[in-house]
Amino acid sequence: MKTSDFYYDLPEELIAQDPLPDRSASRMMVVDRYTGEVTDTGFRHLTDYLTDRDCLVINDTKVIPARLFGTRANTGAAIEVLLLKRNPDDIWETLVRPGKKCRPGDELVFGDGILKGKVLEIVDDGNRLIQFTYEGIFEEILDRLGEMPLPPYIRHKLQDKNRYQTVYAKHEGSAAAPTAGLHFTPEMLDQVKDMGVKIAHVTLHVGLGTFRPVKVEEVTEHHMHSEYYRIEQEAADIINGTRANGGRVICVGTTSCRTLESAAAEDGSIGPKSGWTDIFIYPGYRFKVMDGLLTNFHLPESTLIMLVSAFAGKDHVLAAYHHAVEERYRFFSFGDCSLWIDTKTTN
Description:
The chain has about 350 residues and is an alpha/beta fold. The chain is about 20% helix and about 30% strand. It has 2 domains: about 5-65 and about 160-345, 3-Layer(aba) Sandwich (QueA-like); about 65-145, Beta Barrel (Thrombin, subunit H). The strands form 3 sheets. It has a 9-stranded mixed β-sheet. Strands 5-6-7-10-9-8 form a 6-stranded antiparallel beta barrel.
């Protein structure tokens, strides 16, 4: 299976640079995962495709303002640091630009010295371990100095940090937003609940894998970085109860999908669980839990479009994406969404 098998041509002007004023005003492309039939609608019509036996699984991770801009203490040269993974003793695994000039022993300065860092070592893929020193509370300093870690294809400056957070974000730790959830407003969530749909909260802190392109020719040779996840008993009970009652487990975003598929037993049952996952889902994977997927449009040749292809079939996915390009959908993090589901089982 070649990485190039998952390529599609995307005009640059279709990459959404800014969020819509109204989160729920996004368009939604509904695709029958078995037939590939496409319906163009809006996100506000999501409830038309749900039943009162279903549950939505949402990732309540919260993005931290993980992008820091500083200087190297010895030269004054500008440096950019993206916080990826927190370790004990204020040591973070980071992505540094420019990386080649940032060596072990180098000292970094941020915000006129209220935050300092020392490069300890170089680890996998050229990432740097940096130990930070400061006075006060790290999260408060980060909130002052840090910027939201928007993907590189977004060139506009984000005016409101909250627009790169879901309205249900709770547990801090992500370097990127679970963007499928950005479409929900509190009112939309209430509407879903009022029709009897259950909401199961899980947590997966989105890390480096979101930013890494697939550089190998053979899909199976790609390595996913580990991300921390947690499922509480309440969420497990909702998911197991939904399956027992003949309802569908519909994941909001690929991160929710990866959380469930990492934690599930072979029979699809879920228990309270936490840990690290590097699950890589591509065609040939047998899903144990997920029955439907609400997700944004993903980059060509990315692990995310491979996951959707595993669920709905590569040919259906590429045909639907071609349709989305023709219909001028907005792509990627601040773009429109797609719902992949068996449409025959909806209202």
